[in-house]
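Task 17 of the worksheet. Students: predict the tertiary structure of the chain below and write it out as structure tokens. Keep your answer in the requested format; marks are given for formatting as well as content.
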Amino acid sequence: MAKKSPPDNEQNRLAQVEQSDLGESQLNEEFIDWLKKWGNQILLAVLVVALLGVGWQWLERTRSETRDTAWANLDSAQLPASLEEIAEGARGVDAVTPLALMRAADQYLGSVQTGARFDREASAEDYELDDDTRTLFLQRADALYAEAIVAVGDYEAVFARKLLVVSALFGQAAVAESRGDTEQTRSILERIKTVAAPQYPELVRQAEQRMDTIITTKVSFPLAQDLPQPEPAADLPDPSVLLGTSEAGAEPPAAGEAGEGDASARDATNLILQGGEGSTEAPGDGSD
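Model answer:
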């Protein structure tokens, strides 16, 4: 078989190279055309994805900082006004809002139970609760416990929230008991048993024990000014007995001798008041 001449091989290679170059050139032109058509949209989409990633990171960082700040404020707050402000500003942040509301309610209820105001020094004149302030504190505590229950939300869907609801209900039961409303107290405790079951049987038993200790009969003690006052003595004691001018155990004088006894008592009284002037003898001495 005769071999092909070298020029023919060279021409074949050149043809293949030219064909390859034409194919690559055509691909490049198509890619350039595609970029011209879709390049801006692709670049915009890439920028949007990048911005979304940066925004998500910022949002997560902001949420974390907000959560940390809310819990820190809850730990440091003491007065109910501050706790209510934290509860309003931390809505949707974990369980900060119901916890803050319950802590504020506990402050009012604690003052009623101790009889002293939480916002006064012990030396203040109004440190002890009066009846009007006591009623106001009980109303405020009951309202805050109710707000806490609302702030918890759907506790049936997430049974872990039941602990918050049960805690607030126990607070309302204590408020009702402080008011002396045993029927309301029993009603709230029955609701606690319904909410706590079946996940928290210990809380159910605690509610039942609380019901057993409720005083069904309200005992009220009268005030000091309402107590009966003793009547004054009708017969005053004999002045001679108080002054020591009569012998111990002596019988009272007869009716006929009453005038002489009174005169002697008056003489003895005048003698003591005058310091014994005109005589050196002690009354009743009997010495000459």
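Marker's comment: Residues 276-280 have pLDDT under 50 and may be disordered. The chain is about 65% helix and 0% strand.
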